[in-house]
Design goal:
The protein is of the alpha+beta class. The protein contains three helices and four strands. It has a domain of 51 residues: Nuclear Transport Factor 2, Chain: A (Roll).
């Protein structure tokens, strides 16, 4: 979350999965590519990011064993 508020594009590119699909509270959909492009252009600006109790949803086709929790508390997909 610090990378978003700091506009650290390199960190976001490394941290975000290529198949990211994120729906904003306004119902706008972003992908990794559109989020980074909007942050680079200034169309999307985050001055601060506060954690909340948000539940991530995984696609139904995935098994629980496909995902691991990282040291930062994020979920990452294992394997291809």
């Amino acid at each position: 979350m610090l990378a978003i508020a700091a506009k650290d594009i390199a960190a976001l590119d490394a941290l975000l999965t290529d198949d990211l699909a994120y729906t904003h509270p306004s119902a706008r959909l972003d992908t990794k590519q559109s989020l980074i492009a909007n942050m680079k252009s200034g169309a999307t600006v985050y001055s601060a990011v506060e954690p909340s109790e948000v539940r991530a949803q995984r696609p139904r086709r995935c098994r629980d064993s496909d995902w691991v929790r990282t040291d930062q508390g994020l979920l990452e997909r294992q394997g291809p």
